[in-house]
């Protein structure tokens, strides 16, 4: 089973969600994400949130169409996305993909990235129309060449030790980087596949399409 969670981030950041559909996929709506799924003709199995981003007419329609909605108060100790990921992390999914979690409010963006650390033992990735974000513990990981041109590695812990990159334009061997470093931003694969490995810390990988926007 694969679980796809759609949040209420700006719709222009969403990739074509139908490309991710399949027989083994269960869709989950978070707040306005439930409405977006229904508008696209995709039926969620569950929806979570306080649904404060919908007007009364939209909410009533969603309630008539969905069988399983968890409506939470707006004043609570977790975001709607965290509540949904709490549920998804207990479902023994082989993959959890999160959409609608970028763009718009930066507090939600950073909060959603931090959730990848909370559920670091789960196979979760955040996807938008330009980027795929994953977080990793020490080990060796394969990287395959695909439609994402750029690959960046960002330390999430205070320090990440022993970073080794093979098959990349800018290779590294046993390199240590601290949080705040931009050394590993905007690398590229020069082969059909490569690997990255490290020995200590928590490392975020961001794969980005070449759609412009350098800062």
Automatic annotation (TrEMBL):
<dbReference type="GO" id="GO:0030975">
    <property type="term" value="F:thiamine binding"/>
</dbReference>
<dbReference type="GO" id="GO:0004788">
    <property type="term" value="F:thiamine diphosphokinase activity"/>
</dbReference>
<dbReference type="GO" id="GO:0005524">
    <property type="term" value="F:ATP binding"/>
</dbReference>
<keyword id="KW-0418">Kinase</keyword>
<dbReference type="Pfam" id="PF04265">
    <property type="entry name" value="TPK_B1_binding"/>
</dbReference>
<dbReference type="GO" id="GO:0016301">
    <property type="term" value="F:kinase activity"/>
</dbReference>
<dbReference type="InterPro" id="IPR006282">
    <property type="entry name" value="Thi_PPkinase"/>
</dbReference>
<dbReference type="Pfam" id="PF04263">
    <property type="entry name" value="TPK_catalytic"/>
</dbReference>
<dbReference type="GO" id="GO:0009229">
    <property type="term" value="P:thiamine diphosphate biosynthetic process"/>
</dbReference>
<dbReference type="InterPro" id="IPR053149">
    <property type="entry name" value="TPK"/>
</dbReference>
<protein>
    <recommendedName>
        <fullName>Thiamine diphosphokinase</fullName>
        <ecNumber>2.7.6.2</ecNumber>
    </recommendedName>
</protein>
<keyword id="KW-0808">Transferase</keyword>
<keyword id="KW-0067">ATP-binding</keyword>
<dbReference type="InterPro" id="IPR036759">
    <property type="entry name" value="TPK_catalytic_sf"/>
</dbReference>
<dbReference type="InterPro" id="IPR036371">
    <property type="entry name" value="TPK_B1-bd_sf"/>
</dbReference>
<dbReference type="InterPro" id="IPR007373">
    <property type="entry name" value="Thiamin_PyroPKinase_B1-bd"/>
</dbReference>
<dbReference type="GO" id="GO:0006772">
    <property type="term" value="P:thiamine metabolic process"/>
</dbReference>
<dbReference type="InterPro" id="IPR007371">
    <property type="entry name" value="TPK_catalytic"/>
</dbReference>
<keyword id="KW-0547">Nucleotide-binding</keyword>
<feature type="domain" description="Thiamin pyrophosphokinase thiamin-binding">
    <location>
        <begin position="139"/>
        <end position="204"/>
    </location>
</feature>
